[in-house]
Specification:
mainly alpha, disordered N terminus, 0% strand, 13 helices, 276 residues
């Protein structure tokens, strides 16, 4: 397989890449069709779940604050008068198509990684393949941890804040379906991708672009970047941005540990390899 890959022409590589892309797009499209067919269930139980007062996060936050004898707005969550509007004739149709595609990308993420791996693996040595076997599992695990974190923590806090934020009683909040779904899908996808930070650091260290010393030196700069990214993918409230920033900073510190292990491993391999 390796020899065949080495002898493959440039056009052969392009053809191989094309089929990987076709299979990846097909997986996304098939899942998108499934989500579109069950759009009502997907919207009621997932995309619109955060505007229901009985959403589990609100109950847990209420119990948490009550445990310490503190009052909380999460104990009196109400969205009874918050009806989403569909302004254009095609809004609901186009929104269901777009959200189905986004969910298709999210759910098919492990398969997309596998297709990437299948394309890259033949060009690696046997030793490199063995070292990278846990790549798909680790990257998928971090991705779905980020997905769960954004769905159960960031999204409900953001929705509760934004739906109840009011400058004046003369102003009535009237949100569109597109703005709500856009808020949820952007947070889900954005936070999930941010949770891939340790994987990104691993590969950048492997190719020699960064070192643990570099990461430590620019830790403060990284904090600023993280806060900017948190401000982009979350609503403009401090609580949501801090909640996003904290796990990303933890992942950054984990990335430093990962980078150290990669460097140590490379140094050991360099010592074991015979000198010419």
């Amino acid at each position: 397989m390796v020899e065949k890959q080495k002898e493959m022409s440039f056009l052969g590589h392009l053809e191989e890449l094309r089929w990987h892309l076709v299979r990846s797009a097909s997986a996304i499209f098939i899942l998108a069709i499934v989500f579109f067919v069950f759009a009502e269930e997907v919207y009621d139980n997932f995309l619109l779940a955060h505007i229901k007062p009985d959403f589990i996060t609100y109950q847990l936050f209420c119990d948490f604050f009550n445990l310490f004898g503190m009052e909380s707005d999460f104990c009196n969550v109400t969205f009874a008068d918050k009806k989403l509007q569909s302004i254009k004739v095609t809004s609901q149709l186009m929104n269901s198509i777009w959200s189905s595609l986004i969910l298709g990308i999210i759910v098919s993420f492990p398969y997309l990684l596998w297709e990437i791996w299948r394309f890259v693996a033949p060009g690696l040595t046997e030793k490199e393949v063995n070292k990278s076997r846990g790549f798909i599992f680790t990257a998928s695990f971090l991705f779905f941890i980020g997905l769960l974190f954004s769905f159960y923590v960031i999204a409900p806090i953001s929705v509760h804040f934004l739906y109840n934020y009011q400058i004046s009683e003369s102003i009535v909040n009237s949100f569109t379906l597109q703005s709500h779904i856009g808020l949820i899908t952007n947070m889900l996808l954005g936070v999930s991708i941010l949770f891939e930070l340790p994987v990104l650091i691993y590969f950048l260290t492997k190719i020699g672009l960064i070192t643990p010393e570099f990461l430590k030196k620019y830790r403060k700069h990284a904090l600023v970047v993280v806060l900017i990214l948190a401000a982009i993918i979350t609503p403009p409230d401090i609580a949501s941005q801090v909640i996003v920033a904290i796990p990303i900073l933890i992942l950054y510190e984990i990335g430093i540990k990962v980078s150290k292990r990669v460097i140590k491993k490379q140094q050991k391999d360099a010592q074991k390899s015979p000198r010419v």
